[in-house]
Amino acid sequence: MRSFLLLLGFILATYHLAEAQQPPKIPRVGYLASFGAPNESPAKYQVAAFREGLKSLGFDESKNILVDYRHPEESVHTPELAAELLRLKVDVLVAVDPTAIRAAKQATQTVPIVMITNQDPVAAGFVKSLARPGGNVTGVTRLTRELSGKRLEILKDVVPSIFRVGVLWVRPTALGTGTGFENYETAAEILRIHLQSLQVQRPNPDIDGAFEEAAKARANALVIVSNAVLRPHAKKISELAMRNRLPSICEATQYVDAGCLMSYASDDTESYRRAAIYVDKILKGAKPAELPVEQPTKFELVLNLKTANQLRLTIPQKVLARADRVIK
Asked: Labelling 171: which of 196, 256, 281, 282 has CA 20 to 30 A away?
């Protein structure tokens, strides 16, 4: 009997020792986008911001967290990448644009999804409400569409003589990101501005054709609707706006860095840093259904004075005074 008890004690001690020596499980996160290569702008800046957010919370991708990044190629579509990440048994899916969010949401109703969206997530059907999202989706909304009227007001302040504004936007698809065009219509009516629809299609937008249409309609200013399809073409869009002498306002600062005249939006990179906070909370046991969707509280007006000078445009002092960043 004594021998049996000794043997049992030895077995239990060995079991507990082995259990104590087992390394903790490393969490795995899937990062899903519907556009751009991770080493190209704007995706590389967004990935960098997300990594900064993780690092600030104590995560190190070489030590205590695994992040699988997926950006679609011509032969591979976003829903396929969502399914691939789920096969890797990720603990959390980060979906960084509306197309990716829809693909992730259709792929799973159980794995937590942290979204970053420029759409109203309630109207888009991603969550039930901002305060109590319900389901498996929560995250950050950038209020991009809600600022449409304000952008037209700023454009009118800078160029009071504008009468026809071209709106560059992308035709939606079944997994689309919405149009954004209709959000400008009410403000345009109040400001007595005519809108010219410059609609392009995905995946290969005819941007040159859109600017030809703007010239035919005699548009004298431009609004650029932020979209996963258009973002990789920011430099070309800014060059065409300059060539056509069109003062432009954009929904993301990336376009101003590329040469467009100005933007009014929340901080894009901050949204990606904030998404890391949601990942941290979920990995610690929080439920997406009970994590309120975060809205930005600060919006930035960014001006490109180089572009203004090339357009021979004088930015009014009252607009300059409001600018959060000025590119000289």
From this structure: 256
Which among 157, 136, 93, 108 has a CA at the least distance from the CA of 315?
Answer: 157
Which SS3 state, helix, strand or coil, does residue 182 take?
helix
Angle between helices 98-107 and 78-87 (to 10 degrees): 50
145-266+300-327 carries CATH number 3.40.50.2300: yes
- Provide the β-strand partners of residue 169: 199
Tens of pLDDT, residues 26-85: 999 999 988 766 666 667 888 999 999 999 999 999 899 999 999 877 556 889 999 999
From 50, 135, 45, 58, select the one nearest 95 (Cα to Cα): 50
The reply to whether 145-266+300-327 shares the fold of 28-143+267-297 is: yes
How many angstroms separate the CA atoms of 237 and 44, rounded? 20
Q: Per CATH, the architecture of 28-143+267-297 is what?
A: 3-Layer(aba) Sandwich (3.40)
Indicate the helix (H) or strand (E) that contains 221. strand 221-224
Q: What are the structural domain ranges in the chain? A: 28-143+267-297, 145-266+300-327
Amino acid identity for residue 220 in this structure: N
Distances in whole angstroms, Cα of residue 298 to Cα of each of 96, 205, 220, 266 = 20, 32, 30, 6
What does pTM read for this prediction? 0.82
